[in-house]
Amino acid sequence: MSTTTTAPTPAPAGSPSTAPVKAAAADEGRIGLRANLRHIGALARRNLLQIKKDPESMFDVLLTPIVFILLFVYVFGGSVGASLGGNRQEYVNYLVPGLMAMLGLNIAMAVGTGVNDDFRKGVMDRFRTMPISRSSVLIAKIVVELGRLMVAMLILLAMGFVVGMELHGSVFGLLAAVALSAVFGAAIMWIFILLGLSMKTAQAVQGTAMLVLMPLQFGSSIFVPTQTMPGWLQAFTDYNPLSNLADAARALMQGDPVGDSVWWTLAWAAGITVVLAPLAVAKFRKKA
């Protein structure tokens, strides 16, 4: 009786091998904290070098604060300032802390489109074959975008002082408002990273993000006080995390009592991060 030996079927030409990915996934579990921090630093440096090669990617950071300050102050400042019991300068003091909350959302949207674009170009596939933590790739993105957010905040505050903003609180309060906006902005980035990993194109990410951003931004206390809004909309703004952040930033910068707004903002940031960061990392591992 003869025995027939069947040779293993070779993989089709051009099909990617899963061996490097499996090996990298196995190595990931053995990566320590120091190595993770080193990987995050190296990946953040890579992202910064990309910005250096493409300075146009900083246009949104440089121009958005200027455009929004000039647009809202000189178009709506007179009427809204009067409703606040003052003039245009009163509205500047009200608007700038609100715009600090809004900047984090706009930059977070850019993180989602950037992650999606990196996958389309195959950059993320190369990262997934390396023996590095999957979370380090996404955290490095957030670190660099937080740097961009700080640049936008600096320009926003400079423009605010140029058009007449007055700081009635302390410098410490101002720094605390910036830090609180950065913490919330980092948390929001996980939402858009997950969105970028889930959508097929960067255009789809941007379109979906706008559907999320518009109600959150305009259904809040960022631009105008909420007292004159309909009751049902006021109920929405009370639970809107952007309202909590804007109110907390105003209180910190103007030296007023912050109430519960700071704690609600921190609670929102912690909840979003705890829930969505693991989902984003898991999606990053499994994305085809």
TrEMBL record:
TM regions (residue ranges): 61-82, 94-116, 137-165, 171-197, 204-224, 262-282
One Pfam family in the UniProt entry: ABC2_membrane
Region described as Disordered: spans on this chain: 1-20
Lineage summary: Bacteria, Bacillati, Actinomycetota, Actinomycetes, Kitasatosporales
Name of the protein: Transport permease protein
Lineage: superkingdom: Bacteria
Keyword Nucleus: no
Positions of the ABC transmembrane type-2 domain: 56-287
